[in-house]
Amino acid sequence: MRAPLARVTGVAAPLPLTNVNTDAIIPSVYLRSESSDLARGLFARWRFDETGAERPEFVLNRPPFRRAAILLAGENFGCGSSREAAVWALQRFGIKCVVAPSFADIFYENAFRNGMLAAIADQAELAALIAAVEAAPEDAQVDIDLEKGLIVRGNALRMGFSVPAFRREALMRGDDEIASTLRHAKDIAAHAAADRARRGWLYRAIAPEGKSE
User: In this structure, which CATH number among 3.40.525.10, 3.40.50.720, 3.20.19.10, 3.30.360.10 belongs to the domain 7-175?
Assistant: First the structure.
């Protein structure tokens, strides 16, 4: 179990780039040690120069976006290698939700399995939200209601987003993969009992600890 996630409210940082891959999200150098600072590693090649100094033009180095809780991204976000640490790095930085027109499949699944909301939004509506945030960064506060499937910025912008129903429910309950499975424990036990009754020969052939009866 983990903390339930029903609502995300915070600064939304615009990063409307297509095909942002997992190596850009968290470079492999940050995966060589368990003690690596994944928060600092997030977009490290874009955030820092060769001396380790911040690049002031990068969005997450600018106020108010350096305290972002939401990332507004482009198409096919999280493509490339299947490194789960890409999700961890976003979370360590403080990102709780990524909104994009589409995600790479593995990143998408990794996000939900680690309690992060990956929200798929209409490309035109998301572009309008990104333009609004870029035009008025002092008003970059966005509210995301998972139950209603709504993204709201102030009184002027409301848009929907999609997420699979079972993933929405798991996030709102705080269920990880194990907890989601255990919610079906009675059905699993009933199926096992019915199968044992139907195919008893199989269970008699395999005794405890793998010894034949």
Answer: 3.20.19.10
